[in-house]
Amino acid sequence: MGIVIFDGVAYGMLLFLIGVGLSITMGLMNFVNLAHGSFAMVGGYAASMLMGRLDAGFAVSLAAAFVAAATVGALLELLLYRRLYRAHPLDQVLLSIGIVFVSIAAFTWWFGPSMQPFKLPAALDGQVSLAGMEVGRYRLFLILCGVLVLATLLLGLGKTRYGAMVRAAVDNQRVARGTGIHVQRLFLLTFSLGCGLAGLGGALSLGVLGLEPTFPLKYLVYFLIVVCVGGAGTITGPFAAALLVGIVDVAGKYYLPEAGAFLVYVFMIAMLLLRPNGIVARKGLA
């Protein structure tokens, strides 16, 4: 049971890393961005190409994945997303789901439909003894990454001037503009940050989920569950939801493999009935 929980927590950390950016952007911009997984795919492919073809180090590839996804996110925010901030949610859904299918077609054409090869770095390969269990080093690394990102976001949004501006814009954009905050520039920076985190999660998912062109559609529902169950516009909510979803999914596949992902949807429905506003109701980004 212990190893199942550990693997579930590691899987949940991946969902958190990818989904927390979506939570931030939805909370700030009220934009229904179903293409968030495409930015994770951009980061994953960037890391895969650097490690596989250019023999770059793992740490360098992770940094490049963040930068690549953040850059693509900034370009799309400038060219497409900002035009629809005040549009009907259906228009936003159509734009973002269109980006998903375009990205799938483009990556299939460029890289082919097969799974991207990935070899764990020697330092993260194998197992290590922890609390009497033999756990995978890479999964332990994922948990540490998730905790580090959570702490960084909480400190960054709670203790810095940038975080104060983001919280002000989340609470009331009109008042934030009146105090001299450049809200549109803040949108660009925050959207890029969210996409960069998705790219980092996509790169880290190479060793657990695998990566192929249908990735953004295959895991879209998981990212949405994490944000909706956790509470859009919060940090700790998606963190708690991701851990629960990861544990439920891994435990379900281990103990009830015939049920597949069915238990995740049962969990989602139960949580939304109990907490329709999310595990953490939005009161600013926290």
Give a brief rundown of this model.
The protein is built from 12 helices and 2 strands; from the N terminus they run ααααββαααααααα.
Description:
The protein is an all-alpha fold and 286 residues long. The chain has a single domain, classed as ABC transporter involved in vitamin B12 uptake, BtuC (Orthogonal Bundle), CATH 1.10.3470. It has helices at 2-29, 36-53, 58-79, 89-111, 137-159, 161-171, 173-178, 183-204, 215-218, 220-230, 236-255, 262-274, and strands spanning 127-130, 133-136. Strands 1-2 form a two-stranded antiparallel sheet. β1 (127-130) and β2 (133-136) form a beta hairpin. α1 packs parallel to α5, α1 (2-29) packs across α10 and α5 (137-159) packs across α6. The longest helix has 28 residues, at 2-29. It is globular, with a radius of gyration of 18 Å. The two termini are 31 Å apart. The mean pLDDT is 86.
